[in-house]
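FAQ: What does a multi-protein file look like?

Like this. Sequence, then C-alpha coordinates, then the next protein.
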Amino acid sequence: MNKQSKDEKYLISIIGEQILDGESDKIEVLTGGNYIRKNGHSFIGYKEYDENSPGDYYDNLIKVEENMVTITRKGAMRSQLMLEKGRRHQCIYQTVAGDLTIGVYTKSMKSTLDENGGTLEVSYTLDFNTDLVSENSFKIKVEPKQIS
Protein backbone atom coordinates (compact mmCIF):
# COMPACT_ATOMS: atom_id res chain seq x y z
CA MET A 1 0.00 0.00 0.00
CA ASN A 2 1.38 3.40 -0.89
CA LYS A 3 0.78 6.58 1.07
CA GLN A 4 -0.29 9.54 -1.05
CA SER A 5 0.82 13.14 -0.60
CA LYS A 6 -0.98 16.27 -1.80
CA ASP A 7 2.33 17.33 -3.39
CA GLU A 8 2.33 14.26 -5.65
CA LYS A 9 0.64 15.61 -8.74
CA TYR A 10 1.25 12.62 -11.02
CA LEU A 11 0.08 9.03 -11.12
CA ILE A 12 2.98 6.67 -11.77
CA SER A 13 2.33 3.13 -12.95
CA ILE A 14 5.26 0.70 -13.01
CA ILE A 15 5.17 -2.80 -14.48
CA GLY A 16 8.39 -4.73 -14.08
CA GLU A 17 9.37 -8.23 -15.17
CA GLN A 18 12.40 -10.30 -14.24
CA ILE A 19 13.30 -13.61 -15.89
CA LEU A 20 15.60 -15.69 -13.73
CA ASP A 21 16.50 -19.30 -14.60
CA GLY A 22 13.65 -19.39 -17.14
CA GLU A 23 11.02 -18.31 -14.59
CA SER A 24 9.22 -14.99 -14.92
CA ASP A 25 8.34 -12.77 -11.97
CA LYS A 26 6.18 -9.66 -12.49
CA ILE A 27 5.50 -6.72 -10.21
CA GLU A 28 3.02 -3.89 -10.62
CA VAL A 29 3.11 -0.64 -8.65
CA LEU A 30 0.68 2.27 -8.81
CA THR A 31 1.70 5.31 -6.77
CA GLY A 32 1.67 9.08 -6.61
CA GLY A 33 4.79 11.00 -7.49
CA ASN A 34 6.33 14.00 -9.16
CA TYR A 35 7.38 14.64 -12.73
CA ILE A 36 9.21 17.53 -14.37
CA ARG A 37 10.94 18.32 -17.66
CA LYS A 38 14.09 20.39 -17.42
CA ASN A 39 16.71 21.13 -20.10
CA GLY A 40 15.25 18.44 -22.38
CA HIS A 41 15.43 15.75 -19.68
CA SER A 42 12.59 14.09 -17.76
CA PHE A 43 12.68 13.47 -14.01
CA ILE A 44 10.30 11.03 -12.29
CA GLY A 45 10.30 10.93 -8.48
CA TYR A 46 8.35 8.69 -6.13
CA LYS A 47 8.55 6.99 -2.75
CA GLU A 48 8.64 3.20 -2.47
CA TYR A 49 7.37 1.89 0.88
CA ASP A 50 8.71 -1.28 2.49
CA GLU A 51 5.91 -3.89 2.77
CA ASN A 52 7.53 -5.42 5.88
CA SER A 53 8.12 -2.07 7.59
CA PRO A 54 5.46 0.44 6.45
CA GLY A 55 7.26 3.40 8.09
CA ASP A 56 10.37 2.83 5.97
CA TYR A 57 10.64 4.00 2.41
CA TYR A 58 13.07 4.64 -0.42
CA ASP A 59 13.23 7.81 -2.50
CA ASN A 60 13.49 6.90 -6.18
CA LEU A 61 14.56 9.36 -8.85
CA ILE A 62 14.58 8.40 -12.52
CA LYS A 63 16.40 10.75 -14.88
CA VAL A 64 15.59 10.19 -18.56
CA GLU A 65 17.98 11.61 -21.15
CA GLU A 66 18.01 10.96 -24.89
CA ASN A 67 20.05 7.72 -24.73
CA MET A 68 20.42 7.12 -20.99
CA VAL A 69 18.20 6.42 -17.99
CA THR A 70 19.66 6.74 -14.49
CA ILE A 71 17.72 5.27 -11.57
CA THR A 72 18.87 6.46 -8.14
CA ARG A 73 17.43 4.86 -5.01
CA LYS A 74 18.09 6.41 -1.59
CA GLY A 75 17.08 5.11 1.81
CA ALA A 76 18.40 2.44 4.17
CA MET A 77 20.29 1.02 1.20
CA ARG A 78 21.36 2.95 -1.88
CA SER A 79 21.77 1.97 -5.48
CA GLN A 80 22.25 3.61 -8.84
CA LEU A 81 21.50 1.91 -12.14
CA MET A 82 22.79 3.43 -15.37
CA LEU A 83 20.93 2.22 -18.44
CA GLU A 84 22.36 3.27 -21.80
CA LYS A 85 21.10 1.60 -24.98
CA GLY A 86 23.65 -0.84 -26.41
CA ARG A 87 26.15 -0.26 -23.58
CA ARG A 88 27.20 -2.15 -20.45
CA HIS A 89 27.79 -0.25 -17.21
CA GLN A 90 29.08 -1.42 -13.83
CA CYS A 91 26.77 -0.31 -11.03
CA ILE A 92 26.98 -0.51 -7.24
CA TYR A 93 24.04 -2.14 -5.45
CA GLN A 94 23.93 -1.90 -1.64
CA THR A 95 22.66 -4.92 0.29
CA VAL A 96 22.58 -5.82 3.99
CA ALA A 97 25.58 -8.09 3.35
CA GLY A 98 27.57 -5.27 1.69
CA ASP A 99 28.07 -3.61 -1.67
CA LEU A 100 27.80 -5.60 -4.90
CA THR A 101 29.12 -4.55 -8.28
CA ILE A 102 26.80 -5.70 -11.04
CA GLY A 103 26.97 -5.35 -14.80
CA VAL A 104 23.98 -3.80 -16.54
CA TYR A 105 23.54 -4.12 -20.32
CA THR A 106 20.65 -2.19 -21.89
CA LYS A 107 19.06 -4.01 -24.83
CA SER A 108 16.33 -1.51 -25.70
CA MET A 109 14.93 1.80 -24.56
CA LYS A 110 11.87 3.72 -25.76
CA SER A 111 10.48 6.95 -24.32
CA THR A 112 7.41 8.98 -25.26
CA LEU A 113 7.80 11.31 -22.26
CA ASP A 114 6.92 14.96 -22.90
CA GLU A 115 5.67 17.93 -20.82
CA ASN A 116 2.47 16.06 -19.88
CA GLY A 117 3.96 12.65 -19.01
CA GLY A 118 4.04 9.56 -21.21
CA THR A 119 5.75 6.18 -21.06
CA LEU A 120 9.25 4.81 -20.67
CA GLU A 121 10.09 1.21 -21.61
CA VAL A 122 13.49 -0.37 -20.94
CA SER A 123 14.82 -3.92 -21.39
CA TYR A 124 18.17 -4.90 -19.84
CA THR A 125 20.25 -7.75 -18.42
CA LEU A 126 22.07 -8.01 -15.11
CA ASP A 127 25.30 -9.93 -14.73
CA PHE A 128 27.65 -10.73 -11.87
CA ASN A 129 31.28 -11.52 -12.77
CA THR A 130 30.06 -11.48 -16.42
CA ASP A 131 27.68 -14.41 -15.73
CA LEU A 132 24.08 -13.63 -16.71
CA VAL A 133 21.92 -13.26 -13.60
CA SER A 134 18.60 -12.12 -15.05
CA GLU A 135 16.77 -10.51 -17.95
CA ASN A 136 14.68 -7.53 -16.91
CA SER A 137 12.23 -5.04 -18.34
CA PHE A 138 10.00 -2.31 -17.05
CA LYS A 139 7.36 0.06 -18.34
CA ILE A 140 6.64 3.28 -16.49
CA LYS A 141 3.58 5.36 -17.33
CA VAL A 142 3.35 8.92 -15.99
CA GLU A 143 0.12 10.90 -16.15
CA PRO A 144 -1.30 13.93 -14.33
CA LYS A 145 -3.68 13.06 -11.50
CA GLN A 146 -7.32 13.84 -12.21
CA ILE A 147 -8.58 16.56 -9.88
CA SER A 148 -12.12 15.93 -8.68
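And here is the next protein:
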Amino acid sequence: MVVLDTISLLLLDSGSKLLGLKARQLIKRAYQRDELSVSAASFLQVSLWEKEERIRYAGDLKQWRLEMLGAGILEHPADGTIFMNSLRSGPISEKLFKDIILATAMKVGATLVTVDDFVLRRKKIKSVNAKT
Protein backbone atom coordinates (compact mmCIF):
# COMPACT_ATOMS: atom_id res chain seq x y z
CA MET A 1 0.00 0.00 0.00
CA VAL A 2 1.19 3.52 -0.83
CA VAL A 3 -0.31 6.70 0.68
CA LEU A 4 0.23 10.00 -1.11
CA ASP A 5 0.46 13.10 1.02
CA THR A 6 -1.48 16.13 -0.14
CA ILE A 7 1.33 17.74 -2.11
CA SER A 8 2.22 14.44 -3.80
CA LEU A 9 -1.44 14.00 -4.78
CA LEU A 10 -1.49 17.46 -6.36
CA LEU A 11 1.83 16.86 -8.13
CA LEU A 12 0.56 13.57 -9.51
CA ASP A 13 -2.75 15.02 -10.63
CA SER A 14 -1.11 17.98 -12.37
CA GLY A 15 1.50 15.81 -14.09
CA SER A 16 4.22 17.94 -12.51
CA LYS A 17 7.84 17.13 -13.29
CA LEU A 18 8.55 17.92 -9.61
CA LEU A 19 7.36 14.39 -8.87
CA GLY A 20 10.60 12.43 -9.15
CA LEU A 21 11.31 9.24 -11.09
CA LYS A 22 11.59 6.98 -8.03
CA ALA A 23 8.30 8.30 -6.66
CA ARG A 24 6.60 7.93 -10.06
CA GLN A 25 7.76 4.32 -10.34
CA LEU A 26 6.52 3.50 -6.83
CA ILE A 27 3.18 5.19 -7.56
CA LYS A 28 2.80 3.34 -10.86
CA ARG A 29 3.47 -0.05 -9.24
CA ALA A 30 1.02 0.71 -6.42
CA TYR A 31 -1.62 1.87 -8.90
CA GLN A 32 -1.23 -1.31 -10.97
CA ARG A 33 -1.78 -3.38 -7.81
CA ASP A 34 -4.77 -1.25 -6.70
CA GLU A 35 -2.72 -0.08 -3.71
CA LEU A 36 -2.44 3.67 -4.38
CA SER A 37 -4.24 5.69 -1.73
CA VAL A 38 -4.72 8.99 0.06
CA SER A 39 -6.01 10.02 3.44
CA ALA A 40 -9.46 11.62 3.32
CA ALA A 41 -7.79 14.51 5.17
CA SER A 42 -5.92 15.40 1.97
CA PHE A 43 -9.16 16.35 0.24
CA LEU A 44 -10.10 18.58 3.19
CA GLN A 45 -6.64 20.14 3.15
CA VAL A 46 -6.91 20.93 -0.59
CA SER A 47 -10.29 22.57 0.04
CA LEU A 48 -8.81 24.72 2.81
CA TRP A 49 -5.83 25.71 0.65
CA GLU A 50 -8.22 26.73 -2.12
CA LYS A 51 -10.34 28.80 0.30
CA GLU A 52 -7.16 30.45 1.63
CA GLU A 53 -6.14 31.14 -2.00
CA ARG A 54 -2.89 29.19 -1.54
CA ILE A 55 -3.86 27.18 -4.62
CA ARG A 56 -6.29 27.85 -7.45
CA TYR A 57 -8.69 25.29 -8.80
CA ALA A 58 -11.20 26.35 -11.44
CA GLY A 59 -13.46 23.31 -11.10
CA ASP A 60 -15.57 21.77 -8.39
CA LEU A 61 -13.38 20.19 -5.71
CA LYS A 62 -16.09 17.67 -4.80
CA GLN A 63 -16.11 16.52 -8.42
CA TRP A 64 -12.29 16.44 -8.47
CA ARG A 65 -12.31 14.12 -5.45
CA LEU A 66 -14.78 11.82 -7.20
CA GLU A 67 -12.57 11.84 -10.30
CA MET A 68 -9.51 10.86 -8.24
CA LEU A 69 -11.44 8.03 -6.61
CA GLY A 70 -12.95 7.01 -9.95
CA ALA A 71 -9.46 6.84 -11.43
CA GLY A 72 -8.57 4.16 -8.90
CA ILE A 73 -7.03 6.05 -5.99
CA LEU A 74 -8.26 4.58 -2.71
CA GLU A 75 -9.41 6.83 0.13
CA HIS A 76 -8.66 6.03 3.76
CA PRO A 77 -11.24 7.67 5.99
CA ALA A 78 -9.90 9.18 9.17
CA ASP A 79 -11.24 7.18 12.10
CA GLY A 80 -10.88 7.33 15.86
CA THR A 81 -7.53 5.53 15.85
CA ILE A 82 -6.11 7.91 13.28
CA PHE A 83 -7.40 10.98 15.12
CA MET A 84 -6.07 9.73 18.47
CA ASN A 85 -2.66 9.18 16.89
CA SER A 86 -2.79 12.73 15.47
CA LEU A 87 -3.62 14.57 18.70
CA ARG A 88 -0.09 15.75 19.38
CA SER A 89 -0.64 18.47 16.74
CA GLY A 90 -2.55 20.67 19.17
CA PRO A 91 -4.85 23.29 17.61
CA ILE A 92 -5.99 22.82 14.03
CA SER A 93 -3.10 23.74 11.77
CA GLU A 94 -1.09 22.45 8.84
CA LYS A 95 0.64 20.08 11.27
CA LEU A 96 -2.69 18.41 12.06
CA PHE A 97 -3.13 17.39 8.44
CA LYS A 98 0.41 16.05 8.29
CA ASP A 99 -0.17 14.04 11.45
CA ILE A 100 -3.48 12.63 10.18
CA ILE A 101 -1.83 11.57 6.93
CA LEU A 102 1.12 10.05 8.83
CA ALA A 103 -1.22 8.18 11.17
CA THR A 104 -3.17 6.91 8.16
CA ALA A 105 -0.03 5.55 6.49
CA MET A 106 1.09 3.92 9.74
CA LYS A 107 -2.33 2.37 10.39
CA VAL A 108 -2.55 0.75 6.95
CA GLY A 109 1.16 -0.19 6.88
CA ALA A 110 1.79 1.93 3.78
CA THR A 111 4.78 3.68 2.27
CA LEU A 112 4.16 7.44 2.35
CA VAL A 113 5.11 9.51 -0.71
CA THR A 114 5.93 12.98 0.61
CA VAL A 115 8.02 16.11 0.11
CA ASP A 116 8.24 16.70 3.87
CA ASP A 117 11.90 16.48 4.95
CA PHE A 118 11.01 15.92 8.60
CA VAL A 119 8.86 12.91 7.71
CA LEU A 120 11.51 11.56 5.33
CA ARG A 121 14.09 11.58 8.17
CA ARG A 122 11.83 9.67 10.58
CA LYS A 123 12.72 6.01 10.86
CA LYS A 124 9.30 5.02 12.27
CA ILE A 125 7.53 5.74 8.98
CA LYS A 126 8.37 4.08 5.69
CA SER A 127 8.54 6.95 3.21
CA VAL A 128 9.75 7.93 -0.25
CA ASN A 129 10.75 11.42 -1.33
CA ALA A 130 8.22 12.61 -3.91
CA LYS A 131 10.98 14.65 -5.57
CA THR A 132 13.21 11.64 -6.34
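Q: Is there any per-entry metadata?
A: Some entries carry free-text notes. For the entry above: The radius of gyration is 14 Å.
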